[in-house]
Automatic annotation (TrEMBL):
HAMAP family: TatC
Regions that span the bilayer: 12-36, 89-112, 124-146, 175-197, 209-225, 231-252
UniProt keyword terms in alphabetical order: Cell membrane, Membrane, Protein transport, Translocation, Transmembrane, Transmembrane helix, Transport
Cited function: Part of the twin-arginine translocation (Tat) system that transports large folded proteins containing a characteristic twin-arginine motif in their signal peptide across membranes.
Family annotation (PANTHER family): SEC-INDEPENDENT PROTEIN TRANSLOCASE PROTEIN TATC, SEC-INDEPENDENT PROTEIN TRANSLOCASE PROTEIN TATC, CHLOROPLASTIC-RELATED
Record's subunit section: Forms a complex with TatA.
The keyword Phosphoprotein belongs to this UniProt entry's keyword annotation: no
Membrane topology designation: Multi-pass membrane protein
Similarity remark: Belongs to the TatC family.
Protein name, entry field: Sec-independent protein translocase protein TatC
Gene that this polypeptide is encoded by: tatC
Length: 261
């Protein structure tokens, strides 16, 4: 295929991906009341499953008890006339992207498959399954772990008792959406490393060499978003460490294959 033919294929990939997002966004918009009340605003209440887990853990091991509460100490407000309507639209689009992610992956696979060997193309289903599972696991990790920890920290942070927290709706939703989708993409690290290893940009030796620095970065991130106790930091760090180690194993396997060839 010529360069222009590749651009044409890419254009149709984007068109089909956009259509999938719009269809899923329309479905999400239909159930927007459930999405907002039962999912997006759920981490405000003290009976949210994550808060209950950390509260039980704190009572059992005499740790920080900031999660033992009835509700986060702030109110959410919309300060513009079209604030709630536009929020509903953009949130539906974000949910549409999440729901349509497997379709986008399938379109991406069809785009790159002509550049793969025949033996590699047969792994299309495995690629779609593993990538989708990692993405949704990342979404769940971001929503149930990182988001509540961040909301609890930021919601309880005080520079002075004079200042009252009335959080803007967009600011609150930004944390929910950005954290969840970012974690979903971060959980794609093994897949990304697979392709980077295939084209020779990353090797297992490189990843092992930067392991200590990667661990320090993970611990810093965990320390920022969690309460000041070791247990919470470990809970956040463990999945990131596992992903990094899986990436090393994937890169090492590809390196061995290249030596055989």
């Amino acid at each position: 295929m010529s360069f222009l033919d590749h651009l044409e294929e890419l254009r149709w990939l984007l068109v089909r991906g956009t259509i999938a997002i719009i269809v899923c966004a329309a479905i999400a918009f239909t159930f927007s009341s459930f999405i907002f009340d039962e999912i997006i605003f759920a981490p405000i209440d003290g009976d949210f499953i994550t808060y209950q887990f950390f509260c039980d853990l704190a009572n059992k091991y005499d740790l920080d008890k900031s999660f033992c509460m009835e509700r986060l100490p702030f109110e959410i407000q919309s300060r513009t006339m079209d604030g709630q309507f536009s929020t509903d639209i953009w949130t539906s689009i974000a949910v549409g992207f999440i729901l349509a992610f497997p379709v986008i992956l399938w379109e991406f696979w069809k785009f790159i498959s002509p550049a793969l060997y025949e033996s590699e193309r047969k792994y299309a289903v495995a690629f779609l399954f593993c990538t989708s599972v990692l993405f949704f696991l990342g979404i769940l990790f971001g929503y149930y772990i990182i988001t509540p920890l961040s909301l609890n920290f930021l919601g309880n942070y005080r520079i002075s008792d004079v200042v009252k927290n009335d959080i803007d709706l967009q600011s609150y939703l930004s944390i929910i959406k950005t954290t969840s989708i970012s974690c979903g993409l971060i959980f794609e690290l093994p897949i990304i490393m697979y392709f980077l290893s295939k084209i020779g940009l990353v090797t297992a030796v490189t990843l092992r060499g930067y392991r200590r620095y990667a661990y320090v970065i993970m611990l810093i991130i965990a320390a920022i978003v969690t309460p000041p106790d070791v247990v919470s930091q470990v809970i956040v760090t463990i999945p990131l460490v596992i992903l990094y180690e899986i990436s090393i194993l994937i890169a090492a396997r590809i390196d061995r294959r290249k030596k055989v060839v």
